[in-house]
Design brief:
This protein has about 750 residues and is α+β, with helices and mostly antiparallel strands. It is about 35% helix and about 15% strand.
């Protein structure tokens, strides 16, 4: 691909809070997938800019600082250094900052929200949006911790804990529940307590804040979401739909906290308040690009100098749009499909001198572009439980990398990536996949090719070169070309574990080829059989092609396994950096065959499960989990006789029968329907469920049915779903509906007459 044909690809990576070390859940969900994508895009010849950094403001930082008795600055300085080094050690391409192909091809920057340049841009954007009338000032209720001396402080989000108003989980944070993922205003929390002082008295007080008018963007965001239905994954579509169906409301952009970006206002009423972290941190994708341009593009000869960032952010005058990819965990989906797009649209609006009374439009030439895709991940679990930094239930990335080859982790997390459903990390499975897949298939194949080749007679270029005969390997060439197309298609669709599995199929193909060819029988030029010379030539031709398969593997696994791919590349005697080799060069069968005279070394070392579990147990016994709390024994040995399904259907998370039988499906008849008083896209449905009182269900089907169409229908509903409040009305179940993903939604109804309350089975 020529420079003129290449795309500008912006890789946006979720900003981790700098309040602790990264754990493997972070890596699988947020930080490994974008690096795989960035490496792949570069090999395709695209111009890639990857941006992220440490989120260093907000209550997670101040809470940790208070708990440890240090300043917030001490916390962010410590963990920014730890986490940025760990990501680089994992092979994430945050360095060099300038693409080796040249500054016009982009680069990367892992920055910090404490950067003064970031703060200044955020302040300017705050002022722009306020002047455009996109903020409203409101007095809100907030919990306030009363000190013994009569003074006190407001308790923003993580400073208060209680019972979730949605799922009744105890221990929910003031702004979000980790159990069900619901977001809410802290005042909605039930049984609130101060996190830092649980015994302190708390009361509700008034406080003034600015709110961003998300409601103004409801229709335009719905248009954008509709246009993305064939692009977004099911989890992205579902969570975005839930937010839009509930109806967008103004959201606070300021908070009562001193640690953060101060408001760009002189009025004393705003003293002691700062920009809300959600409003600030998402802007890091843009500020980071601008800072990269001012620091690296300007000083390395980019034709646009400090404006180089616009190549990756703005729609061209010809209408060509840069491709924006956002990588994050599922809990952050609405911030990247609703809130951040609303801010981008607002900034585009304000930059044109328009205000809240003017119609808002989707981006056009010269505007900031909206996202192209949000390939959000589900959760990587730790032996069945969710990774949690705050609960210290984790395997920490820095400690892991002290003990293991980073490519073993990259392989395991890639082949076990939580793309469409939660997956699990446990030590036995980790060891099994490394030993029986990565080593037994990939490592074994390339080592056989190199060691067998080294036993042949010397050749100035390659001991295998003289035996090459591509006319004898056409079937293998065709299979590899098909695999290459499959790998490419999978990566284009962000199906990383599928892509890696296809690449591993190439290693298995190579092993099968060698097993059939038995080249170890023909290393000597002299043999006893009558047709030995011909047999030798045919066998060693396949061994020679094994070199090309090994080269193929080096290129196609480079996005996943950069360290081992580089070692293999050097072992093959190839020049340069495999990361800079054109992607389609993997299936160029005419590349000159080279060789490295050094003794071949295995790419990987076998892992010993007993040794790993013993080490983990020692950490627990020595109470070292207090320092490295993620080092706990999880899982254990697999029992003999345990079997896995040969094939798991992508996107399906299987339930055991007993779990499924707990779901109680019943027949109900809709007796009455009303508009929800606090949600534009919800109905309040009154259902005759066979009981004396009936039940009420809040349903997001207003777009698909009129009230008259619903009344009288016999529908299937979940009767034992835990009631939860939805905008002030308690919903006591869920009606079932079919959704084809193309904006067609139909309720599941019952054919014929049947008594209400009848069980569906």
């Amino acid at each position: 691909m020529s420079s003129d044909e290449s795309e500008n690809v912006l890789i946006c990576v979720a900003w981790p809070y700098a309040n602790g070390p990264l754990h493997l859940g972070h890596v699988a969900g947020c930080y490994l997938p974008p690096d795989i994508q960035a490496r792949y895009e570069r090999s395709r010849g695209n111009r890639v800019l990857m941006v992220s950094g440490s989120d260093e403001h907000g209550t997670p930082i101040t809470v940790t600082a208070e708990q440890e008795g240090v300043s917030p600055q001490d916390i962010v300085d410590k963990f920014h250094k730890i986490n940025s080094e760990a990501l680089i050690n994992l092979g994430c391409s945050w360095q060099p900052n300038v693409d080796p192909r040249g500054i016009e091809y982009g680069g990367s920057l892992f920055n910090r929200t404490s950067d003064d340049r970031h703060k200044e841009i955020v302040k300017n954007n705050f002022t722009k949006l306020m002047n455009a009338g996109l903020f409203e000032r409101k007095t809100m209720k907030q919990y306030y911790e009363v000190a013994n001396d009569g003074n006190g402080r407001f308790l923003p989000d993580r400073y208060v804990e209680g019972t979730c108003p949605t799922c009744s989980f105890e221990g929910a944070r003031g702004d979000q529940c980790d159990e069900c993922g619901a977001t809410y205003e802290s005042i909605e929390l039930i049984n609130p307590k101060s996190k830092m002082n649980p015994d302190a008295d708390i009361e509700v007080r008034d406080t003034d804040h600015f709110f961003y008018r998300l409601d103004l963007f409801q229709n335009i965001l719905q248009q954008h979401a509709d246009s993305q239905q064939k692009v977004w994954k099911s989890n992205v579509k579902a969570m975005t739909k839930q937010w839009l169906d509930m109806g967008l409301r103004p959201r606070a952009v300021t908070r009562d906290l001193s640690w953060g970006i101060p408001l760009p206002m002189d009025d004393q009423v705003w003293k002691g308040k700062c920009v809300y972290v959600w409003f600030e941190a998402v802007q890091g994708y843009s500020t980071c690009a601008q800072i990269w341009a001012s620091e690296f593009a300007l000083n390395n000869g980019h034709p646009r100098g400090g404006d180089a960032w616009k190549d990756w952010w703005c729609i061209g005058e010809d209408g060509k749009k840069p491709r924006h990819l956002y990588f994050l965990g599922k809990d952050n989906i609405p911030f990247h499909t609703v809130i951040w797009p609303a801010l981008i649209l607002g900034l585009n609006h304000a930059n044109k001198g328009k205000t809240s009374v003017d119609e808002i439009h989707l981006p056009v030439a010269g505007d900031y572009a909206l996202e192209s895709n949000v390939p959000a991940m589900e959760y990587l679990m730790l032996s069945g439980g969710q990774f949690s930094k705050s609960r210290k239930h984790a395997v920490w990335l820095p400690a892991f990398l002290e003990r293991f080859d980073p490519d073993t982790l990259r392989y395991y997390l890639s082949i076990n990536m939580p793309e469409n459903h939660d997956t699990d990390f446990n030590w036995p499975d980790f060891v099994e996949k490394i030993n029986s897949e990565l080593i037994a298939a990939y490592g074994n194949f390339v080592h056989r090719v190199l060691t067998l080749g080294a036993r042949l007679e010397d050749n100035p270029n390659s001991p295998l070169e003289e035996f090459e005969d591509l006319t004898l390997t056409t079937q293998y060439q065709a299979k590899l070309e098909d695999l290459h197309q499959s790998i490419t298609n999978s990566l284009n669709k962000h199906r990383y574990k599928e892509a890696l599995r296809f690449a591993m199929n190439a290693a298995q193909l190579g092993n099968q080829m060698l097993q059939n060819a038995t080249p170890w029988k023909y290393l000597s030029p002299n043999g006893d059989s009558e047709n030995y010379e011909e047999e030798r030539r045919n066998s060693l031709a396949l061994l020679s092609f094994g070199w090309r398969i090994a080269r193929y593997l080096s290129i196609t696994t480079q996005p996943f396994l950069p360290f081992s791919a580089s070692r293999l590349w050097n072992s093959l005697g190839q020049d340069g950096d495999v990361a800079l080799i054109n992607w389609n060069s993997a299936i160029d069968w005419n590349v000159d065959m080279t060789w490295n005279d050094k003794k071949p070394e295995p790419l990987f070392k076998r892992l010993d499960l007993e040794e790993i579990l013993s080490f983990e147990k020692e950490l627990v016994d020595d109470d070292k989990e207090l320092e490295q709390p993620g080092h706990v024994v999880k899982g254990g040995k697999k029992k003999k006789g345990d079997k896995k399904m040969k094939e798991v259907i992508e996107g399906i998370e299987y339930l055991d029968f007993d779990t499924f039988m707990k779901v109680d499906l019943r027949v109900g008849k809709i007796s009455k329907v009303e508009d929800h008083p606090n949600a534009d896209k919800l109905y309040v449905v009154y259902l005759d469920d066979g009981t004396n009182n009936g039940r009420t269900i809040c349903a997001g089907i207003k777009k698909y049915y009129s009230i008259d169409e619903l009344v009288g229908k016999s529908v299937v509903f979940v009767s034992n779903l835990k009631p939860r409040p939805l905008r002030g009305i308690t919903s006591e179940g869920m009606m079932l509906a079919a959704d084809d993903g193309e904006d067609n939604v139909k309720l599941i109804t019952v054919d014929g007459n049947i008594k209400t309350g009848s069980q569906v089975r």
